[in-house]
């Protein structure tokens, strides 16, 4: 519909015609003289008004056709305010630290596990619970495809995140080959040594620290080391600063105008890509000289491995995907560790249990020996506790899919082109699957753990998070080094958490450290 409105043969050509006349009049106004100008000004105003009316009419017709198509039995719900829909209400609840309230209230109001709304300028069907998760995760590329906002698409244009349908498969396979447990096993020691030196320089000997910025820095240094082997402190520092700007503006309205946060984010993106590109070029030279092995890090793997069709990724594709992984690894794990530290400060009995497990592992190592894969496998209670943190405070609340055909779910029609949103909380906080859902209880993950599709912090189906194992290793290695060295207490025990879009402590999570 929108494509039709803006097709050259319709609206656009008419609009260009009017614009041409305007430019002609303005361009010739001097020759026409002052008196003629008086006649022209009202004429210009009328034309502009006409244009505006035309644009509004076209917009309204397109909006109606998209949001209220005829002949469909749409889910219950409200599209909220014109244009903004319910986007601001949802954002506000996130900033108040109650993101799940948005869906909870509407489920109660409409009495269904599905409701319609308007978010991010799109008509959206929000679908809730494990049945919805199963439906979406198992119908990727059949009924739905992944969908991200324009601002995200612009930041990662040729990455696995924004490639849809069968285009995504080869890139995802290449990334998964590097991120699968067998491949990551050999990096546990490196992760341990990075974390140890980080603790020595940034934590030890300090009485009080601001944890959240430090966690982000740690995650970033770790990811850039494991994925690209970038160690030059100047490059790392520059990249860290640019990533900060990027994170700050990435979910803004994509207005690429100087002065906006989005504009600054896109400039930061250009700087990061330029730095990554120069590393890629150096690595290519090193690869052909045989001074690095093809499995040296993710970057060299991507440079030297062809996909399943025998095609090598272009430098732009490699840059975009490395940028994506650095970005994904940066926010999610630091948010999880911050939330984990908060829960542990509140529940000393769980801290003690984790400490017992980690001290047991440390005692089995020779002095100076680094952690390895076998040690990670023994961190069962520590990981169950982290899973419970991810259940209650997931870094990602859910993601969108787009209907690639008209479809039916829960007895309602979802028109082609509509977006569907699956939500983590609607399963994680359901007492049917997690009795007393607000209670913190790591034993939920003993044995076989939760039923399929009820526990989904990493999503599911073909789009499931490929960084799952990497995140597990990073968090476990960090926790080991943390509890071995410190106890801690938050400076502000009731510090607010805002979800914007990830859960973050609003005051940066200052803590007092007590060495063990
Ligand atoms: C606690 C940490 C993490 C959580 C909870 C998490 C969660 C998620 C979720 C919910 C999705 C969307 C899945 C879907 O739409 O079905 C996702 C996608 C993704 N994640 Fe993670 N993630 C984490 C860490 C990481 C890390 C460390 C990396 C990189 C090493 C990573 C890379 C990605 C990528 C590339 C995608 C896009 C996959 C695709 O669209 O096919 N994530 N993640």
UniProtKB/TrEMBL annotation:
Binding of heme, residues: 465
SUPFAM superfamilies, per the entry: Cytochrome P450 (SSF48264)
One Gene Ontology biological process: sterol metabolic process
GO molecular function, one term: iron ion binding
PROSITE patterns per UniProt: CYTOCHROME_P450
Pfam families linked to this entry: p450
Keywords: Heme, Iron, Membrane, Metal-binding, Monooxygenase, Oxidoreductase, Transmembrane, Transmembrane helix
Requisite cofactors: heme
TM regions (residue ranges): 40-63
InterPro entries: Cyt_P450, Cyt_P450_CS, Cyt_P450_E_grp-I, Cyt_P450_sf
Family per similarity comment: Belongs to the cytochrome P450 family.
Name assigned to this protein: Cytochrome P450
Organism encoding this protein: Tetracentron sinense
